[in-house]
User: What shape does this take?
Amino acid sequence: MPKSPSSRRGSLGAAAETPAGARNVREPPPPPGCTGRFLILLAEEEDRAAVPVLRNVAGLRVARSGDYAGRPALAALDEADGLVLDELRVAVVHAPPDALQVLAAADARAGILAVEPERVVHALPHGAVGIPEHPIGGPAEAGAAGSAVAAAYLRGYRDGVNDLTGRLLRGMPAADAPMAEAPAFAEAEFTWGLQATRAGFSTWSGRGVRVAVLDTGLDLGHPDLGGRPVEAVSFVAGEGPEDGHGHGTHCIGTACGALSPRQPPRYGVAGGAEILAGKVLDSRGRGEDAGILAGIDWALTQGCAVVSLSLGAPVRLGDPPSAVFEQVGRRALRRGTLLVAAAGNESRRPDEVRPVGHPANCASIMAVGAVDRNLQVAWFSCAGLDPRGGQIDVAAPGVAVRSAWPGAQLYATLDGTSMAAPHVAGIAALLAEADPSARGYALWALLVQNARRLPLPARDVGAGLVQAP
Assistant: This one.
């Protein structure tokens, strides 16, 4: 069952940017990691006064997502002071100081349940954890297109790579330290992740189950996706749903990749599932809470059983989880949709272990830690350190994970809890096909109950290694 939720009201940060037409008030910049906008949690009942409070009392010009059928609702933030996401009952607003004071003073009777700053989120916080493999056949055989894709990716990550080697060495045992014998994971037919989770041997494929992956988009021309039901929508201004980064294609490949890929081994868990690719992170792997929430709102309207979130932001030990995302997770579960999120890559084990990041630290969102092919905790995987919440729920393969990649390269091998989360999302789709009544809380319970127990601390792996039916 989901973790014990926290009922704390979100705290207010610095004032947001002054919306168009408002008084010219000098405002401090937003705190680090925040955008300057605010998230407003509204009561679920439509007859509550929350929207009138936003409009008539706080003086904000707000639009509603239901009025943007056929086009991205986030465009409203360029035209108005705020946007109400109708399915989630969450608003994203630009609020000047006087309006913010009104909203902070409002209470549940006015339909305003929480107000908190909007955060900046990333696909892979603090640089790349993994490096893509060479194109199939090697660089010389890949041609100029494949080399260009690889070069563009490496240029985008070179600052992180310069720092990566030292961090890796600090997180690995000494050269003469004894190593546990690795399980026999020959990858001729299935990746080691599909073997460890038994997904490669499952008789289920996720057929008929809708899985949304909110990330950097998808390579819609990837040969392993031919003939598959795919819906792709961008929630990033100025960018279409195509993946200009790579992270999204890799995550979608792990969750829902082909049962018979162009190049073996098979790497996709739920090869029969219907794919919904929501682009909420730009070509640099950067995004905002508003994009994630809009993507979740969309996934609910599309009837998705699972939403995979390989993204987030680091938190400090003791920071309360987002009250908005906590309620979003609960509302999604009640609607029959499970949110699965990567725990974060900020740890540098064994010297430094960091807490589960946002939004995975919310009690109602399933947090996924990463293990390597020795079934040991990955050196970068965050842990459940706060006794008030934010623990790991399950673990999944997250080291040396091979999956799809955009362009001529086709495939890449990466590390990260970002790679672990889509394993769980895919297995949730298998369980949802096996038991059509298992949705929301019931699907969460099946994932936890069927997990393989590991001789590792629960703070690192939760109930254990997720297993396919």
